[in-house]
Amino acid sequence: MQLRFSEYLRWQPQIYSIAGSQALGLVLRQLFNLKKKKEANLLALDFFLTIDVVCAGVCAGLFWVISLQDYSALLGGQSREQRGQKDSIDLMVAFVFVLIWARPFMLFLVVPSVSKMLLTLVAMLRDVIPLLGLVVCYLIGMT
Length: 143
Known about the structure:
The protein has 6 helices and no strands. By secondary structure, the protein is an all-alpha fold. The protein folds into 2 domains: about 1-110; about 110-143. The protein is flat. The model has no long low-confidence stretch (mean pLDDT about 80).
């Protein structure tokens, strides 16, 4: 496990450079808007750039938190404190995972044809929830 943890830590420069490049894109866009001539168009700070910067910051922060941990705490350990640390790290990883997968979903909502398809799919899945509940109860009861 120590070997895998040290291999994980080798990715530190790449993670921070990706997060930094996304933050740098935001800063450069702001500098362009400040230095432009009056008749030029502004580069908008759109919703997706903001989401990218937030995702990059959260990923870099999570990587930093994990790199500070002792690798025995990442295994869950025997003590209650180490298990609590592992549980909190697992929750942070799950949050980052959901946040990163929400990015393309939000991007797809902008394209009209894909947006209609996704909203239809969500509505269909919402309508199927009672049936899925019955199927799950049936499977539990029959096993």
